[in-house]
Specification:
By secondary structure, the chain is an alpha+beta fold. Among the domains are: 3-69 and 210-252, Nucleotidyltransferase, domain 5 (2-Layer Sandwich), CATH 3.30.420.40; 70-209, Rossmann fold; 479-573; 593-638, no CATH class. 31% of the residues lie in helices and 28% in strands. The chain contains 16 helices and 36 strands. It is globular.
Length: 639
């Protein structure tokens, strides 16, 4: 029986889920290997017992790009920019990193000023202002060569309308440096806004060589074991094969978290919910998402490690709060949690792997919130060591062990609650109308406390909660996206021109059966857009009505201005793998559960109670009631 394997690399653990042809699921968890993530992937396959001949595909979620941006260890990039506009990366949007704290600075650009080459010639929206002569092209190529790049990025003004100058320059650089890859902004992001387009192109160039090396190394490891070449899930939630993913490095910045939100959406639909907030709490960070009409919300743009990446992505907001977040005392004597993390190595003190600083996980262990004696075959819980560490911290702040542990957890909860508000309230969504889908190793521990902070009364703890991101990867469909610049008023278009636009984009996305179209639209003169779905055969008037209705819902007003389509996107997807979740094997329980005479599982847990799951722990606080679901997992509700 064949199965689809999903492998998610997190900061502390590497999770594996296998979905067989009949929809049944296997799971596994090993410690991550930060120095080379492919080692942890290989170990998870070896220890899970998956037969290579049975694996019809392996789908991977990786933090390689995110780590590269955080640690600034990407490739040496030389950027070609239009003369007079070579300072875009330094100028950014001329906004402060923090409105009130002048000591906080933006991260340094991925390409320093001395590696930016000015290119003569200039395009404007109306056409060519200054031509780009052949001698200027040759001169720019020579200046690039003198800087000895590992890869070259080209981002010229208004190339989203006319890519000819970029293409001529790329060809010249390829002749001068035949072994150096060249990345053009007109290929990566053919949309307006020169800063975001330049930053995204530089990110692609910065990460592409490293991603290529990593994926080739991973493919070699899998091949040696007899497994197929891996697919990789991108930030948009769809899968591409490794060779294609290596040419789309910037789109992998939220690879793993996108799989988590997709898994949360799948389980929410199966449980009968079409609107949800999701939170994936791991050892290093927490990832927050929004699910509307049963699907993850996809938006264009966002910051990753301070770098704007303006490509379509599943909405995910990441905060530095997780089980490994370290509890510490600041200079003013206040107790804090994070953003520093114990990570996979050495990890929390309770893991007994050399950790010396108390973490959120240690606080839970000290309070008795983690009932299991071990969290994987490699990690066993040392409750005594965790309590001693919290006691030492309590002495420093002049409090009790219990209050100190509760304060560490509350500090982490506050950071995560702020992220949940940002992804919901800022988009006109009342959190109280949503169910909170909580997963990851620490998600079910924090879920009810977070719900209380947001006024939410319903929590869904999925089956396989500790490895749900890997489940989302295992069932992820193949997906291809094509983007095109439009920049036309809607009243200047007709039904036929709209159809030709989207049909042309769809023709570039392969032959998979499911196609979705999105128009990025705004009132003329606005500085931001809304993403509006386009249905086949839709007239410009109907599309405009859909935009104004969405604008009214989001912002509460309409404007007496023409509506403009900035760009268009077509997304073609294959089928999502089916999965048959069930109560069997989804948790362990004691007096909280019962089995009726017919052999059907029944469970109702009234808090305060701790329930050990196979790959996580769930805390049902006082005032909450948990009920087991037929699909596995638990529905927890305010009493």
């Amino acid at each position: 029986m064949t199965e689809s394997i999903g492998i998610d690399v997190g900061g502390t653990f590497t999770d594996l889920v296998g979905v067989r042809e009949d929809g049944t699921v296997r799971t596994g968890k090993v410690l991550s290997t930060p120095t080379d993530q492919s080692e942890g992937v290989e170990r998870s396959l070896r220890e899970s017992g998956v037969e290579p001949s049975a694996a019809d595909r392996i789908v991977h979620g990786t933090t390689v790009v995110t780590n590269m941006l955080l640690e600034r260890r990407g490739s040496k990039v030389v950027l070609c920019a239009t003369a007079g506009a070579t300072d875009l990366l330094e100028l950014r949007r001329q906004e402060r990193a923090s409105l009130y704290d002048l000591s906080i600075q933006h991260p340094e650009p991925l390409v320093p000023a001395d590696r930016v080459v000015a290119v003569a010639g200039r395009l404007a929206p109306e056409g060519v202002v200054h031509d780009l002569p052949d001698e200027a092209v040759a001169s720019a190529a020579e200046l690039v060569a003198q800087r000895e790049p590992e890869i070259v990025a080209i981002a010229l003004l208004h190339s989203y309308l006319d890519p000819s100058h970029e293409q001529r320059l790329a060809a010249a650089i390829a002749r001068r440096l035949p072994d150096v890859d060249v990345v053009c902004s007109s290929d990566i992001l053919p949309e307006i806004r020169e800063y975001e387009r330049t930053a995204t192109t530089c990110c692609e160039a910065y990460a592409r060589p490293g991603v290529g090396v990593y994926l080739r190394r991973l493919a070699d490891r899998l091949k040696a074991l007899g497994f197929p070449s891996p697919g990789v899930v991108g930030s948009g939630g769809g899968m591409a094969d490794a060779s294609e993913a290596a040419r789309s490095a910037a789109s992998l910045a939220l690879s793993g978290p996108a799989g988590g939100v997709a898994g949360a959406a799948l389980v929410a639909r199966m449980a009968g919910f079409d609107r949800a907030l999701s939170i994936d709490i791991g050892g290093t960070s927490a990832d927050v998402g929004l699910i509307i009409d049963g699907e993850p919300l996809v938006e264009a743009g966002g910051l990753v490690a301070g770098v704007p990446i303006a490509l379509p992505r599943v909405l995910v907001e990441t905060v530095s709060a997780g089980g490994g977040s370290i509890g510490w005392v600041d200079e003013g004597g206040a107790l804090r949690a994070g953003p520093r993390s114990a990570g996979a190595v050495p990890g929390p003190i309770a893991f007994g792997r050399g950790g010396t600083q108390p973490t959120v996980t240690d606080a839970h262990v000290a309070l008795g919130n983690i009932a299991a004696t071990h969290v994987s075959d490699a990690v066993r819980i040392d409750a005594t060591a965790a309590r001693e560490a919290i006691v030492a911290l309590a002495i420093r702040v002049g409090s009790t062990m219990e209050k100190t542990a509760e304060a560490i957890i509350a500090a982490a909860d506050a950071a995560m609650a702020r992220a949940l508000r940002r992804v919901s309230v800022e988009r006109g969504i009342d959190p109280r109308s949503c169910v909170l889908v909580a997963f990851g190793g620490a998600g079910p521990l924090h879920a009810c406390g977070l719900a209380d902070r947001l006024g939410m009364t319903r929590v869904l703890v999925p089956p396989h909660a500790g490895v749900l991101s890997a489940l989302g990867l295992a069932v992820a469909p193949e997906r291809r996206t094509a983007i095109g610049s439009v920049m036309h008023r809607l009243d200047e278009m007709n039904t036929d021109s709209l159809a030709r636009l989207f049909d042309g984009l769809a023709s570039r996305t392969g032959t998979a059966p499911n196609v979705a179209h999105v128009a990025r639209m705004r009132y003329r003169g606005q500085g931001h857009e809304l993403e509006v779905s386009f249905d086949s055969g839709m007239t410009p008037g109907a599309l405009g009505d859909r935009f104004t209705g969405m604008h009214l819902q989001r912002y509460g007003f309409e404007l007496p201005l023409p509506v403009e389509m900035v760009s268009a996107r077509s997304v073609r997807s294959g089928a999502t793998r089916t999965v048959a979740l069930s109560r069997s094997g989804s948790s362990t329980w004691s007096d909280a559960a019962s089995v009726d005479d017919g052999g059907q599982f029944e469970a109702t847990v009234v808090g305060r109670r701790v329930i050990a799951l196979p790959d996580a722990t769930m805390l049902v606080p006082q005032g909450w009631t948990a009920r087991a679901l037929p699909i596995g997992g638990w529905f927890v509700e305010r009493s």
